[in-house]
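Re: beginner question about structure tokens

> Can someone show what the tokenized structure looks like for a real chain? I only ever see the sequence side.

Sure, here's an example I had lying around. Input first:
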Amino acid sequence: MKPRAMSSTRATVPAFDARAFLESAGTDRSVVKYARGDAIFTQGDPCDGVMYIRAGCVKLSVLSKLGREAVVAVLEPGEFFGEGCLAGQPVRMGSATAIAPSAILRVDKDKMVRLLREQQSMSDRFIAHILARNIRIEADLIDQLFNSSEKRLARALLLLARYGKQGKPVREVPKVSQTTLAEMIGTTRSRVNFFLNKFKKAGYIEYDDELRLKINRSLLSVVLHD
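And the corresponding structure tokens:
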């Protein structure tokens, strides 16, 4: 068989669609809709299911004993969360909050374990998700340790706009408060406000009084500049 023919055949095979599989008739699941600001689960709740984002945007955060909140991740449609139950976590180690109107598909722990054991395509998709999440966490840690708060904010905005991800980036990002942005990058709300105004004056972003943000490609220059 010629290598070129093999390459052509592979190109015609569609990627595994996790959403379609999870929503298939043979898969027990429940879908819950959340308004902006609704808690999907709270730190300390029983850890008994895996979530999949059909639509919307979800913030994962952790609350310290002193009451300080840190945002761990902001997730978008097509991403899983709450998978700690599969590793034996009895309670949620953090909280999940909808930061935009969201539709969340929930699969019970035992059913998810069975799916991963019986469906190779589902298992491969889920493992790829976990690996990608770990890579993202490492990149976030490096960003937090070595970059300025200005550069961290620019990177966070670009990630919200899906730069560096599969598919075409979007200009308008989910509505996120300045407080949430501050928690994401480890700084104060006043610093976020200062940098947003700076980015706006430079033409890197556009936003109104309701903080509807539009990201311009030129914002990349802040991240790439040494």
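Each token stands for a local structural state, so reading them left to right follows the chain. The helical segments are 3-11, 18-22, 109-118, 120-146, 149-160, 178-185, 189-202, 220-224.
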